[in-house]
Amino acid sequence: MDYAVAERVKEFCRERGVKYGFFVEKAVIEQMAREELKEDLLDMKTLRDAEFQAVSLDQYILKRRG
Q1: Which of 2, 10, 29, 54 is deepest in the core (most CB within 10 A)?
Q2: What sign results for the dihedral spanned by CA atoms 7, 12, 15, 18?
Q3: Are 13 and 5 in contact, with CB atoms under 8 Å apart?
Q4: Average pLDDT of 41-59?
């Protein structure tokens, strides 16, 4: 992390009485969730054209059992 950014975050936390580690951990978790959501949305967009090939779970299980 860039030193200037880290110092800004530390100052931000000090001013608001928030623990630095907690703030950074929460920020990282939230950003990861946003990135995962973007990936999921891209998958949905990409797979939308293949939706007509989908089968029900019951059909899939029957086929797997042979």
Answers
A1: 10
A2: negative
A3: no
A4: 90
Residue 50, SS3?
Answer: helix
* The CA-based dihedral angle spanning residues 18, 19, 25, 26, taken in that order and rounded to the nearest 10 degrees: -20
Binned at pLDDT 50, 70 and 90, residue 51 comes out as confident
How many independent structural domains does the chain possess? 1
24 touches 9 (CB < 8 A): yes
Query: How far, in Å, CA of 49 to CA of 34, rounded?
Result: 24
The count of other CB atoms within 10 Å of the CB of residue 9 is 16
Please compute, for residue 9, the number of CA atoms within 13 A of its CA located in the half-sphere on the CB side.
Answer: 16
- Residue 14 lies in domain: 3-65
